[in-house]
Write a structure and sequence with these properties.
single chain, mainly alpha, 5 helices, elongated
Length: about 150
């Protein structure tokens, strides 16, 4: 594919859009939430332990109930996940991530529909799901497109 003036203009507009996103309130709120989570040494330690337990969980899942540590790992990972889920800083970070994802989904849909209403955009969000196409298009899932 050759680089044309149209492509250069599109790339410049993408850079402008990325700059606007970086300087937006949604991204600032995300960055603050992220900093609050990862500046807390106890919380970082909890996240690290949970990540290590997730690796053990995946190992145990290969063997299922027959793994000798199955019950211990299953109980521990549920407890650690619940502890993180109930943490206000982690919850705020997840909400901020969801807000950014919503903005990105809206941008993707607007860009796709600017080209054609027939363009299918996998958003993973039922609110943005096109009625003729579920979230299966382009995501490897089953697609219910009529096209």
């Amino acid at each position: 594919m050759m680089m044309t003036d149209e492509w250069l203009a599109i790339i410049e507009q993408i850079d402008e859009l990325a700059d606007m996103l970086r300087h937006s309130e949604v991204v600032a709120e995300y960055q603050q939430a992220y900093d609050r989570v990862y500046s807390d040494p106890d919380l970082v330690q909890s996240i690290r332990k949970f990540t290590e337990m997730k690796e053990r969980y995946e190992e145990v899942q290969r063997f299922g109930r027959y793994h000798p540590d199955y019950h211990i790992v299953m109980k521990t990972i549920r407890q650690q996940k619940r502890e993180l889920d109930l943490n206000k800083q982690v919850a705020a970070l997840r909400l901020a991530e969801n807000d950014i994802q919503q903005v990105l989904d809206e941008i993707g849909l607007n860009m796709a529909h600017a080209v054609s209403e027939a363009v299918k955009v996998p958003t993973g969000n039922a609110f943005f799901a096109d009625s003729s196409c579920g979230t299966g298009c382009g995501t490897g899932g089953s697609c219910s497109c009529s096209a």
